[in-house]
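User: Thanks for the earlier help. One more: IGFN1 protein. Can you show the sequence and predicted structure together?

Assistant: Of course, both are below.
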Amino acid sequence: SAPRCHLNKQLLGVRVLKGEPAELSCTVSKEDVTGTWFKDGLKLTSMDGVVFEKEGLVHKLIINKVEDIHAGKYRFEGGDIKTEASIFVEDPPQVDKVLLKNLTSVPTVAKAGQKVQIKIPFEGRLPIRAMWLKDKMELVDDTRIRVDNTETFTMLSISSSERKDCGDYKVRLKNDSGVVEINLKLLVLDKPQPPAGPIKIVQSSVNDVTIQWKPPKDDGGKPLQRYVVERQQVGKSDWVTLGETPRTCTTFTTNKVEQDMSYYFRVRAVNAEGTSDALESDEVKAVGKASPGAPDAPEVVSTSKDSITISWKAPRKTGSSRIVGYIVQKRKKGTMTWLPVNNAPVSDKKLKITNLKKGLQYEFRVAAVNDAGIGDASGPSQPAFARDSTKTLGPVQDLKVSSSDSSSVTLTWKTPETKNGSDVKGYEVEVRPSTSLNWTKCTTLPLEMTTYTVKGLQAKETYFFRVRPLNDSGPGEAIELEACMEAAPPVVSPRFLIDDMVKSFLLIKAGDTIRVNIPFEASPDPVVTWLKDGLLLPNQAAITTKDGTTQLLIAAAEFTDSGTYTIELQNGLGKRETFSFQVQVTDIPQSPGPIHLEENVPNTVTVIWEPSASERWESHLYYTVLKRESEKGMWRVVGDLIYNNKFTFTQLIPGRDYYFRVVAKNCLGASGPSETVKPWRIQKTKGK
């Protein structure tokens, strides 16, 4: 409906958008009253686009389509009524809707090095100030970037685009009637950056060298496809291509090396746009053969009248190649001679030594074997007698299933009843399916805890579990338990559980905490990825995903945290779901700059001030102008919702002093004031 102004109510006026209808009306006391309309002091008899109507006691002035010529002060006179009001024509900046949709819905894509031009035509009351911003900062001309502004369009030109030009851009068009903002996204594609270094040497032996690196910090805007690995022998100029790895693999092993030779390695990343520069390693030497280091002293597991079982751990230093087995030696306590137990290396790290003499005390040591030969021997074990243990262990107590799902079972139990609980050296857990009679050990070494989770089980299958205690004399009595696995949960495609608690737009005060919880459901558990403006989140953002909820936490919000946040859910079946929301970080505006006063029209004063620094990051900033007529008088608002940086005050009385103050405002509050230093006065003119 058209904006209306009822003159009888003594309203100051009505603001109308250009092109919209408007209506002024006045109610008189008698029907036979003939009214007259005036505009800017002149009697109106006819005017383009203006219609006069009378309905009973109501006299109307109707404008079907408001233009600039219709702005002004209107007065109605009829009978004993004489009243007036004003029409202010607002003509804010406007951009074609089709062009606006194309610019905001689809990113502008360019390849690195290409010229980028984004032109935005506009309409509206002049002058229109156009401003381009990136990351909340106004763009200024330099050797590559130029902003051209005319009375009909604004255009951003980038002579040679680079990856750093990617991001969110904002175009702000502003005049006396209002402000329009356009959000754009620019994506520049390029070859990747070099892989992140340094190149680490994971293993260097006589036969092969394994290197490792990190993915590049910037993939160029396109997914990586692969890595290319090359090698150069020290002293030669040629680089030899060794092979490629998929994008998910950042290690490479080559056997194209010779003993005691030195090499350089380099790695390049490849995407659809090209190949990156190379990341080069320091000098790497293919070492000669080296035997393993000494393991720790072996431990005695159990004893009997003619045998002793020992176990050990692999040495910390494996030498120049992998360990192929172990040599075990024995000796009687008190003697110096070590005798071999096995002639061929054993691959297991546990061995039962038989044919011992009952009642004698023995010591044992172990040496690892690789391609270079037998390594250093360990220290001797604790002495052990070859005799039956006098302490036999009974079964564990209270064996039960504490929890289970479709693929695992957690068992718990209590120690067996013994005269001394320290006799128990550990526990052994075994499992077998109901379709087999063969038991399988779940661990290679004894368990120290009285709980264990068996994983990798099949859904809806029945299994048998047994647990037995261990001490120096060997395994104790076993106890069994039967358990049926749950059915696998149904496959649920990932989706977000969005309700009224999840908002699509958040307004955050700078310095406050940003905490956003997004609930979802999916089975199996999805991979959750957070993005900001299409890129991975910065380091100050903490992400936690647990029990069907993923949380974003930023302890102290900064202006750079404003933007579009996107959560991606993707499961192993290829199903993908996304959800996005906007975050705007703002703050109470900073004060406007200094004020100066001008008399552009006689008997008026124009208040002009420097813009608040907050205009760079606050899109909904406006100004309020106040005045007082003495140094200690009350401040009164004379102008509000001002989107530019000047205001003209007309109701001046000659001979009085006027002080002015300007404050900047947004949705969070008002800034401190900026005030005039000296008063403004229009001198009285004395009569003749």
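User: Great, one quick takeaway?

Assistant: The mean pLDDT is 86.
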